[in-house]
From TrEMBL:
<dbReference type="Pfam" id="PF01756">
    <property type="entry name" value="ACOX"/>
</dbReference>
<feature type="active site" description="Proton acceptor">
    <location>
        <position position="383"/>
    </location>
</feature>
<dbReference type="GO" id="GO:0005524">
    <property type="term" value="F:ATP binding"/>
</dbReference>
<dbReference type="Pfam" id="PF22924">
    <property type="entry name" value="ACOX_C_alpha1"/>
</dbReference>
<dbReference type="GO" id="GO:0003997">
    <property type="term" value="F:acyl-CoA oxidase activity"/>
</dbReference>
<dbReference type="InterPro" id="IPR055060">
    <property type="entry name" value="ACOX_C_alpha1"/>
</dbReference>
<dbReference type="InterPro" id="IPR036250">
    <property type="entry name" value="AcylCo_DH-like_C"/>
</dbReference>
<dbReference type="GO" id="GO:0005504">
    <property type="term" value="F:fatty acid binding"/>
</dbReference>
<keyword id="KW-0547">Nucleotide-binding</keyword>
<feature type="domain" description="Acyl-coenzyme A oxidase N-terminal">
    <location>
        <begin position="17"/>
        <end position="135"/>
    </location>
</feature>
<keyword id="KW-0274">FAD</keyword>
<dbReference type="GO" id="GO:0071949">
    <property type="term" value="F:FAD binding"/>
</dbReference>
<dbReference type="GO" id="GO:0055088">
    <property type="term" value="P:lipid homeostasis"/>
</dbReference>
<keyword id="KW-0067">ATP-binding</keyword>
<feature type="binding site">
    <location>
        <position position="141"/>
    </location>
    <ligand>
        <name>FAD</name>
    </ligand>
</feature>
<comment type="pathway">
    <text>Lipid metabolism; peroxisomal fatty acid beta-oxidation.</text>
</comment>
<dbReference type="InterPro" id="IPR029320">
    <property type="entry name" value="Acyl-CoA_ox_N"/>
</dbReference>
């Protein structure tokens, strides 16, 4: 199919090599080539062909995705793939923006076995689980409790005579609920999204399991019922850490899809007039459309950068823990908590902005933006609700203030809290990314000190930490967000500095995006900068001008920057986001193919007939 002339023209501009940026995003040219190979292994294999999942009922969708997920597993085994990124490539190429039915087995059942099973148990369960000889799920949440783990009511009473645990969900609120991939007792019913996953309920009534079913690497129960505590009790929370550490990159992936669709479509879509008589411009030439999409484009790159960094950090910490070193578990937990909370929240807001920016066609499943949205938005609740996780980060920051007062060294990701910040010169409209980073770190430091002073005062008054925290939860959450933005901006600046050395032309365009991310973040909290006397009105006016100027620099690069995400059309599955930009013809073809247009609408005639017969 010929290329849409608008997109063809957009691809003649640009100042950097798209392929080189794709290689950087993938982690090197070899990884790009391997990703292409794996995608083709799926896309060319007829077993992965099937009905357009956007036309399917919940039951049909589950069945079709289960069929495909089993094919994904076979393909992954056939190709001897054990790298999680490569396995995710095969999975994503097949799932058409859905979450597969066996996802929880991979991300929430296998991971805890890996982390908390002893060698014997690994042989018994982990090895067969990795081969899908046993399929598992993660049944923690109950009808009455999800966030408050210490409030869970399920019982495991030890029967010393039989060396067994007797499991019970003694109350209705104790019923296990939301259990992804729970194939035993029942499905919890239709949901907002996640149609490919059978989130189940599980009632336990005197279910007996052997003593050695308790994962024994971190704590065990001896034959006489004595509980031997793990060296570090918090490691039992570790199973939730793995998914949280991975979700920032999942957020980046989903936001990258949404901005690819919205930016390509905004170049194809012509609407209204700027100069009368000069034809309808591309909607991406409207400053308001750029103001919707370019900060999100910058955000997608920022989230990808920090998502890769978080996964590397987490993997290092897990290796340390496997060797018995727990000193970085707390930092890993709060980084994963803060990044998972902020990134997934801003991603679902961003996907919605992308959908709105495509007008009516964004509301059609032909765009796939609604599919991406309803499956992504769960990530702000699942694996730790946003506020719950931000509070974890906030409590850690309050401890950092005490550490600072006591001269205890801080973890590297919060070292900036010990730095002094001053800004004397007036900002013009070309503030560099390092100065923007310093400002964002300054705000986080000041906010942490400000919140800590309130919490301390409350603690003095009540002597109760939980009460003190509860009274200031709103500003504690804002404090955690401010710190997390400092972590994101630091990762982005660090990566762009590195790329500026290795590939100046790519680095330059990414530095523009980094400035857009930083200026947008600062303008979103401009009042704080005035209140803390870090910026004046003139500074803010100047960086507002800078933002609009940056949009003009990014405009000719925008399509190339989304092309660099390198989504195959069959992976993106969006008519608005097609690489060739042939939207209208394919929208019409897709609509005509809808089963709704094929069914004989006998019902229509039947009921309208009644109207005609009725004496209205
Ligand atoms: C093949 C490829 C496939 C690719 C697939 C890619 C697509 C994937 C898309 C799908 C992704 C996800 C699917 C969704 C799956 C969802 C699963 C779930 O939802 S499972 C259930 C999750 N539930 C939760 O997260 C519960 C949240 N609540 C909590 O975690 C707790 O309430 C907590 C821990 C926040 C509070 O704990 P508690 O009440 O005990 O008190 P404290 O706050 O005082 O904490 C005690 C102490 O422990 C430390 N801590 C807490 N959590 C952790 C942790 N996780 N790790 C380490 N340490 C932790 C905390 O800091 C305190 O320390 P202290 O020093 O005492 O202050
Ligand atoms: C798509 C999806 C898949 C899931 N898969 C699984 C799974 O496979 N296995 C599993 O075990 N669970 C699963 N879950 C459940 C998930 O882990 C919980 O929904 C999540 O932990 C939130 O807990 P909750 O639902 O009890 O919400 P609640 O904690 O009841 O939250 C309700 C509101 O109360 C607020 N709140 C609660 N506590 C506090 C507090 N201390 N301070 C301030 N505000 C508070 C929250 O911020 C929120 O606004 C899944 C959920 C979803 C949506």
């Amino acid at each position: 199919m010929p290329m849409n002339p608008d997109l063809e023209k957009e691809r003649q501009g640009g100042t950097f090599d798209v392929e080189q940026l794709t290689h950087i995003l993938d982690g090197g040219r070899d990884k790009t080539l391997k990703r292409h190979f794996l995608e083709q292994e799926v896309l060319k294999d007829p077993v992965f062909r099937g009905p357009d999942t956007r036309f399917l009922s919940r039951e049909e969708l589950f069945g079709e995705l289960l069929r495909k997920h089993v094919a994904v597993i076979k393909k992954t085994q056939e190709l001897s793939i054990d790298d999680i990124n490569e396995a995710s490539t095969i999975y994503s190429a097949a799932m058409n923006n859905n979450v597969g039915p066996l996802t929880l087995h991979s991300v929430a059942f296998v991971a805890p076995l890996d982390l908390m099973a002893d060698d014997e148990q690994k042989k018994k369960w982990l090895i067969p689980a990795k081969k899908y000889e046993i399929i598992g799920c993660y049944a923690q949440t109950e009808l009455g409790h999800g966030s408050f783990i210490r409030g869970l009511e399920t019982r495991a009473d030890y029967d010393v005579n039989t060396q067994q645990f007797v499991l019970n969900t003694p109350t209705e609120t104790a019923i296990k609920w939301w259990v992804g991939g729970c194939v035993a007792v029942g499905d919890i019913g239709p949901k907002f999204g996640f149609g490919g996953v059978d989130n189940g309920y599980l009632c336990l009534n005197n279910v007996r399991i052997p003593r050695d079913n308790l994962l024994a690497k971190t704590g065990k129960v001896l034959e006489d019922g004595t509980y031997v505590k793990p060296e570090n009790p918090k490691v039992v929370y570790g199973s939730m850490l793995g998914i949280r550490a991975a979700l920032p990159k999942v957020g980046a992936y989903n936001l990258s899809k949404a901005v690819t669709i919205a930016i390509r479509y905004s170049c194809v879509r012509h609407q209204s007039e700027i100069k009368p008589g000069c034809g309808e411009p591309q909607v991406l030439d409207y400053q308001t459309q750029q103001h919707k999409l370019f900060p999100l484009l910058a955000t997608a790159y920022a989230f990808h950068t920090v998502g890769v960094w978080m996964l590397d950090f987490h993997s290092t910490v897990m290796n340390e823990i496997n060797e018995g070193h727990y000193h970085r578990l707390a930092e890993d937990h709060v980084l994963a908590a803060g990044l998972k909370a902020v990134i997934n929240w801003k991603t679902h807001e961003g996907i919605e902005i992308c959908r709105f920016s495509c007008g009516g066609h964004g509301y059609s499943l032909a765009s796939s933006l609604p599919v991406i949205y309803v499956n992504h938005v769960a990530n702000s609740t699942a694996e730790g609700e946003t506020v719950i996780l931000l509070l974890q980060t906030a409590v850690y920051l309050m401890k950092c203030v005490i550490d600072l007062e006591q001269g205890t060294p801080l973890d590297p990701s919060v070292a900036y809290l010990d730095q002094s910040f001053s800004k004397s010169e007036q900002w013009c409209s070309d503030v560099d990314m390092h100065s923007l980073l310093k400002a964002i770190q300054f705000r986080s430091k000041k906010f942490t000190e400000y919140v800590s002073s309130f919490v301390k005062k409350e603690l003095m008054a009540t002597g109760n930490q939980q009460l003190a925290f509860n009274k200031h939860k709103v500003i504690l959450v804002e404090c955690a967000k401010a710190h997390t933005e400092a972590v994101i901006m630091n990762a982005f600046v660090t990566k762009v500095d590195e790329i500026l050395q290795s590939n100046p032309s790519v680095g330059k365009v990414l530095s523009l995006l980094c400035q857009i991310y930083g200026v947008t973040e600062i303008l979103a909290h401009s009042g704080d900068y005035i209140q803390y006397e870090y910026l004046r009105k003139i500074d803010l006016d100047n960086i507002q001008d800078q933002l609009f100027k940056l949009y003009t620099y990014i405009r000719p690069e925008a399509v190339l920057l989304v092309d660099a995400f390198d989504f195959h059309d069959e992976v993106l599955k969006s008519i608005l986001g097609r690489y060739d930009g042939q939207v209208y013809e394919n929208m019409f073809k897709w609509a005509k193919a809808s089963p709704f247009n094929k069914q004989d609408q006998g019902t229509f005639r039947k009921y309208i007939q009644q109207l005609k017969q009725a004496k209205l």
